[in-house]
Structure formats: C-alpha cells, structure tokens
Amino acid sequence: MTRASVPSSAPVQLRLCPRPRRIRCLPASVRRRRGGVACSASAADADVVDLFDAAKLTVDKFVKSGMVVGLGSGPASALAVQYLGTRLRRGSLTGIVAVTSSVLSASEADMAGIRASSYQEGTKIDFAFADAEVIEEGTLAAVIGRRKIESGEPSFMLEKAMVKSADKLAFITGSDKYLTGVEGSIPVLVKSGNWIDTAEEIDDLFLGDAEVWRRPSFGTAGPLGGDHPLVTKEGHHVLDVIFTTPIPDLGQVAEKLEKIDGVVDHGIICSNQSFAVIASKGEVQVIEEKSSVIP
C-alpha cells in the first residue's frame, strides 16, 4: 500500500538576508530571491520552495486580523503556521485566535510562538487551511488521512471536523496532486466490532474498482492488517479503500460510504467554501470551488 511521504522538518540553519524569516521547515539549501529570504535554490529543493510560496500566499490572501484560524497538519500547513507566526511577531497581523486540529499542528503553533487551543465541536472558525493529499479538479473535493499514523494516535476525524466548520477553507498542495480522476487510497474509519462485514460490504460496493485493506500499526500491509492492525485512539480500525481505476466523482464515493453500516468517517472532504492553493514550478494558483480560473 502506497502512503504519502512527509518531508523532514528537522531544525536547520539558514543564511539570512536583510529581512530574516524564521522558516524552520525549509532545508538549508533552499534560498530565495523573492520575498527577502534569499539567494539560490537547487533543483532538488524547488518543490519545497514552491510549497512555501503557496503557504505564504494562503496566509497573506485569506488571514485577516481578528480572525479565528484553524491550523491543519502536514508539510504545507507547517510552513503556513511558521509564516503566520512571523507575521504575528512583526505585528502585521493582530488578534488572531488559533485553533489546532492535531498534536502535530499544536506542536507547529508552539514552535512558531502562536498561542493556540485544540478544536472543540461547535467552535466557530473564520478560515482554516490544511494539506490535501489529493484534490479533485473542478469540485475541489479533497482526500486527507493517507499519512501513516501510529497506534493510539487520534485519527483524521478532528481535522476533518475543524476544516468543515470553517467559513472558508484552503487546501494547500502541489500541482501533481491536483487531478482529474483520483486514484489510490481513500481512508475509511470503521467500528472495530464486525469490521470484516463492513470491509466486505465496501468491497462489494466498489467491486472491480478498488481493493480494501485494513491498515497495520507497523510492518507489511495486507487485507487483514497483519498481526498488528492499527487501532486509533477512538478505538476504530482504518481501512484503505485503494482505487485502482480513476474515480469519476469523489462526492459520490463519499455518499456511498456514509450509507454503509459500521462506517464512522472517511477521508473525503467536500466543502462549498473551499479554495485550492496550488504550487507549481515557480508560480502559485488560487482556484475557487467549481472553477478553474484564478480569482
């Protein structure tokens, strides 16, 4: 089973230019001429630089003083959190109330010097940003939850609840993940009791189009999850519904999954107030829901 990889965010030292930015997540070889960070960029780091530009634009375009802002998890979100912290220290943004969706986003906020609280059901959020592991072109439906989690770690349900409660939402990702005809894993949380019956029903529903595997906590993946299946903090199993043919409509897949008894949640997010911030070869596009033009 293929999983999305997450770039290392180990602290590094940067050679700063006159307007320094504390961007902990950028590798040492990444330098910028634009925006005051810079000097040179190697080809190997071009994608990281582009992702930083997308994260920066997300904060500059959507975050306003006095907002309640939801902080997502992942490489792009980490860069956006770090840049948000920079703007708060400079005083160009004030009165921000930050809400985190995971242990990872809480840790990033702390390192950026941002006071934040964990998301609670019913919290009103003005704007939220999050990584997307894939975005469906046109509808901007997104998939989260492919990232490996450890046994006992909270699932992606909290992040999904947070971003869906936001008045506006931006997914940040690279152009290689903005696709027509999404393939690969759709994570599905299922109740632990009779999970095999649930898995078989999902398998029958998408017969010929997808394989259903239970995610292991470690070791080699397999249909049954091996000897050490993953169990989330909430006590659920994670099924990876791995589509081997392009999905014509993520929204329809979400509707079908939600009708199956035993399914708790899934990694598909559909929102009427979403944007995609797409990093691509030295430029960033901001795409509105059900539109392919830059607003």
TrEMBL record:
A Pfam family hit: Rib_5-P_isom_A
* Group of enzyme by EC: isomerase
Q: Which UniProt keywords apply?
A: Isomerase
Sample GO molecular function, one term: ribose-5-phosphate isomerase activity
Q: In which pathway does it act?
A: Carbohydrate degradation; pentose phosphate pathway; D-ribose 5-phosphate from D-ribulose 5-phosphate (non-oxidative stage): step 1/1
User: Reaction catalysed by this chain?
Assistant: aldehydo-D-ribose 5-phosphate = D-ribulose 5-phosphate
Show the Gene3D superfamilies listed in the entry. 3.30.70.260, 3.40.50.1360
* Listed EC numbers: 5.3.1.6
Write down the InterPro entries for this protein, in alphabetical order. NagB/RpiA_transferase-like (IPR037171), Ribose-5P_isomerase (IPR050262), Ribose5P_isomerase_type_A (IPR004788)
So what family is this one in?
A: Belongs to the ribose 5-phosphate isomerase family.
Q: What is this protein called?
A: ribose-5-phosphate isomerase
